[in-house]
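FORM 7B: Structural annotation worksheet

SECTION A. Query
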Amino acid sequence: MSKSRNPNTARAAAQPARKTARKSKRAKPQRAATRAASSRGTKISSTKTPSGTSKKAAIIDLLQRPNGAAIDDLTAVTGWQVHSVRAALTGLRKEGKELIRAKDAAGVTHYRLAADA
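SECTION B. Predicted structure
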């Protein structure tokens, strides 16, 4: 007669049962300071001024040069990776801007905006 023995039963009996459901976190109550500020009459302006030129504007500035800009120029200015710069160029095309591609003598592709764009 052979006994079948489950090796995990002894281990399971020695350890406490695990909880399967996690407790949900309570939502933080709203701060009373926001209501108090409005009652004092002080208002915070909701208009934000840009803190500088955007990366999209920097790309457009480079593309408006007579020779345009290579991908390396655009990645250096924005700090983006190559695929992100190409996606930004695609976004400009979808906005209706006409991009012209041209290769120089070294074989580097330069992108520039068309004159009427």
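SECTION C. Observations
The longest helix spans residues 82-94. The mean pLDDT is 78.

SECTION D. Sign-off
Analyst initials: ____
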